[in-house]
Amino acid sequence: MTIVESWFIPLDILMIIPITLAVILGMIFLIVISIDKTCHTVPMMFTANRLLSAFVLGCVLLSLCVFTLINDLRQVQYQDSLCVFRGYMVYAVGAAQNYSNAVEAFYRYVLVVYPSRLYFRSIRFQALIIFTAPLKVSVMKRMKCRSNVVVSTVA
Known about the structure:
Keywords: Membrane, Transmembrane, Transmembrane helix
Transmembrane segments: 13-35, 47-70, 118-137
Structural class: mainly alpha
């Protein structure tokens, strides 16, 4: 049995409160965006994309903080089978959050640099960028370049 410092518990609670608030507000905003027809525009699509990634990140962080609080209350220090998975999910969802920011920055860039090309502003093109670019990244990771010849590997 490991002795856990007593000041860990208030810090755990202080982390859980704002994360819970962020998850609840994110869920409310996503519901409003999905219900209200005036919010079905391209800029709001990016806002919903960012809110969704923030909501998922909040859920992952909330599960991590609740797990930490439970172990601090029981004064147990061990690594369970999901500990590594929770840590991976924080990094993966954080990368998705950064990706949604990059997609919105790309949209703003296209708006300024190519204002006359309406295809770049369409919902279809932006949805294509949001949903297919992670697929491209995962496919490109499986390809190896060797002396100007691309060899695909099947996993």
